[in-house]
Amino acid sequence: MALTMTWTKLRHLLTLQKHTWNTIVVASRHCNNTSQPTTIQQVDEEVAKLLDLKAQLGDEPTPKTVLKTPKGTRDYSPKQMAIREGVFKVIVDCFKRHGAETIDTPVFELKETLTGKYGEDSKLIYDLQDQGGELLSLRYDLTVPFARYVAMNKIAKIKRYHIAKVYRRDNPAMTRGRYREFYQCDFDIAGQYDPMIPDAECIKIVYEILDNLKLGNFVIKVNHRLILDGLFEVCGVPKDKFRTVCSSVDKLDKTFWEDVRGEMIDDKGLDPISADKIGEYVQLNGSSELVEKLLKDEQLVQSKAAKEGLEGMKLLIQYCDIFGVKDRVRFDMSLARGLDYYTGVIYEAVLEGAELVKSNSKSKEQIGVGSVAGGGRYDGLVGMFAAKGKKVPCVGVSIGIERLFSIMEAKMERGNQEVRTVETEVLVASAQPNMLEERLRLCKELWDAGIKAEISYKANPKMLDQYQYAEKAVIPFLAVIGEQS
């Protein structure tokens, strides 16, 4: 069996090996010069020792440790972190501007808390080994933990934001901002309010964040789960297939209708006639005029759910117009959002023309990040945790920070933009030797005054080196200490 050894041990074994060979040579000479019958036995013993040493040394070298991040994760350099922190600031400032307070929850939850909340995406939850008699899973998103928090603390109304990492056992596509570990930035409003007012504010928040980040044109797609349920009803979809058919429709932003139709018929057993009827509707998009058109659709409005959803959509677009964001909002019948907990309005923001090529990519792979924000209304989720099933209506939005970052990073690479990674305001320097203590005292005074300052850690640094460091770090001021002659 091969052993892992230190160099000291290895040298020791090699010394023993050399000694053993010397013993064999001496024994051989003795065999030639005497008639002792034990000489061959001595050689066999020494050979056996050599074979034992060889077994200890092993035939294969110890493999080197592979230095890499786990699949679907990445490290971030100081430059990348500076970009991310800038994005976070824009998002947090917006959340606070709209009156939100922040909370935090554990990175893992009881498995039963997460089970049955995500539909077909439940297979992407990371389960942990049994620890202390509890079956745990890493959180899949921040919405279900928030609902658990509201129910557990018997909260009737709250407007909160939460920025934290979530985990998905997915097939990562890192050039498209799709990871197994990533941040979500959530904003949610919980409580009983008049229809569509909080929903419209969530859409306004998405608009403000994307507009302030200046990533180019974007569109916020909106739809309503009641419209989809009514559509499935009038198209002859069995009620027990509503959610699974909804998951198929949700793929229309990534593939063609023919592929979605095939999945619904071949994989999910939907009648082809029903699939074709669905196809006539889910390829429609527009604004208030489409809502008016569908309200006159005699087949669709036979469904009470569809009619209620269309009236809600009409009101939502009206409020979006007042908020000044109607020009970015598109009523899209293909938007489904596959998570099971949505009950009302759903929305998703997509950057237009977000196909970028990384300048350092040899393969020239394009970055198409898909949706960069999404959310909706989930009025029944808190009731799954609350005593006696007490409902607390909720609506919220999640900003896809990783996808936004992928776009911003690629744009900065293409534009060769400089990114400052430190916030130092003053570099305390000296033009003469033996000024270390004076530099330290001045630096201390600056720190005590709340001024961001640095010094060179050399006792007698060269003036040119200090200038060059300040220039490289884009430090705006130098405080140079020296003695008058």
Based on the model shown, name its key terms.
single chain; 485 residues; alpha/beta; BirA Bifunctional Protein, domain 2; Rossmann fold; 3 domains; nine-stranded mixed beta sheet; 15 helices; globular; disordered N terminus
Could you give the topology of this structure?
Blueprint: H1 7-33, H2 39-57, H3 78-97, E1 101-102, E2 108-110, H4 111-114, E3 136-138, H5 143-152, E4 158-167, E5 181-190, H6 197-213, E6 218-224, H7 225-234, H8 242-249, H9 257-267, H10 272-282, E7 285-286, H11 288-295, H12 304-322, E8 329-332, E9 345-351, E10 355-357, E11 366-368, E12 371-377, E13 394-399, H13 401-415, E14 426-430, H14 436-448, E15 453-455, H15 463-472, E16 477-481
Parallel strand pairs: 1-4, 6-8, 14-15, 14-16
Antiparallel strand pairs: 2-3, 4-5, 5-13, 6-9, 7-8, 9-12, 10-11, 12-13
Helix pairs in contact: 1-2, 3-6, 3-13, 6-12, 7-12, 9-10, 11-12
